[in-house]
Amino acid sequence: MPQEAVSHSQDPIDSYLSIKKVLILYEEELPFLGDCCLQFDKLRYFKSFLNEAYIQLNFREVKNSKYHESLLKNNQYVDEISILSWDDIEFETFDIIFCVSHKEPDLADFLKQKYSNPLSPETIGLPVYSLTDLLLRARINVDYVFPVKEDLASYLKNTGPGELYINEEERKWANSWLERKGVAPDENLYVILDSAGSKLKQLPIQVHFGLLKALLEKPKTKILIFDEMNLGKETFYRGWLGVDKASNLIFSNGLTLREDLCLLSSTYIKMIFGPCTGLMHCSSSIYNFFKAQGLPIENIPLLVVYTGDMGTSSYIVDEWWGASPLINCLMLKKTGETKKITLLGNMSDGEEKLPQLPCSEYTVQLLSDFLIPKLGFTSK
User: Fold this and answer.
1) What's the burial of 110, exposed, middle or buried (CB within 10 Å: 0-12/13-18/19+)?
2) Which of 97, 285, 350, 359 has its CA 20 to 30 A from that of 24?
């Protein structure tokens, strides 16, 4: 339930042309990679809306470092990233301030004490606005006290495909890393993502490994598996696949998130396949950027995300993947006794009306029949 909005002594922002320096206070912990990827992408539209003003993005939550250091590197739409306490910020040096927080009253109280007008203690003499609802997931029982710039809100709701910025030096590093792992130019390298924020988003383990076996039966095939946390996946995979097939797996053990993102950009990769998870959003954004820079569509790997019914009306596939033009977003439907993979954005009216099945209903045969032909092989 919102409190009474904080007022400004005056609203000096009658023209965005007067804005030269902007502060964005990002006060929330970033729990999910996919959310971060989508949220941070809005910064490029934010900067253009504010006439290329200087943008400083401040995080007080130290836990956010992993994500903002990995996702915002090479991002030309953020001029400065800081990790400062409110006491150390000279708020009065900014032309406009935006807050991203589910605890806006805390900031309001701090600013009132430091910058209030003596004749009107409830008034902040600074132009502070809220971006909370625009960037964060909605919560109940949250107090919003700062006003919203409605024209900016409208602008940010109509954005294009996300972008993530990997430069040529980083792509060369990725290629060299894979070459040292034994990848040859004439081989097919597939990235298979095997983790997600919820087990409901993942394939049954038998289906996951059955699909890997089907892919590894194809000639000149290698598969890249990420093990950022050094969980010992190599031993686990060898147990499921056997030594011979596991010899064609590559594991990125203990690399940083940024290094894993660079690997996703490698020119050796022919497919990235995984659940509705953060690294799939990052993959989409990386290749959206490359395509915008002129990379021919035939040089973009096959990008496939599988989705399923999550048992909640709050999970809407189109909201997560509808604005990702390079992604083949799989949805599993059932007509009578027949299960069928359909593609988001490419369904008939009848298919759209069919309920979506959960990820537990995918089979190796269904996935192989979809993937193998797209990879240039003949499906059995």
Assistant:
1) middle
2) 285
